[in-house]
Amino acid sequence: MLRNLLIGQRTISTASRRHFKNKVPEKQKLFQEDDEIPLYLKGGVADALLYRATMILTVGGTAYAIYELAVASFPKKQE
Question: How many angstroms separate the CA atoms of 29 and 34, rounded?
Fold first, then answer.
């Protein structure tokens, strides 16, 4: 019973227990530079990989949808 009472007294806090360095000013400088790199690729290698994966999935999904529409539009002949 005492344990349940102590657990019930814990407060929920939104404050973090760890203190992290504020990286926002560094990121603002990086993203505001005018270096002809598209914004969606300024994050480095991870952004480039995510962009390429997204494009591959989008093009592949579109091609598959068109293929399935073509297959569905020509019904199979009854023998």
Answer: 10
Amino acid, res. 18: R
Return the closest-CA partner of residue 31 out of 17, 19, 41.
Answer: 41
CA atoms of 4 and 34, how far apart (whole Å): 58
What are the C-alpha distances in Å from 60 to residues 20, 46, 52, 64, 65? 40, 21, 12, 6, 9
Segment 36-61 mean pLDDT: 93
pTM: 0.60
Contact 57, 65 (CB under 8 A): no
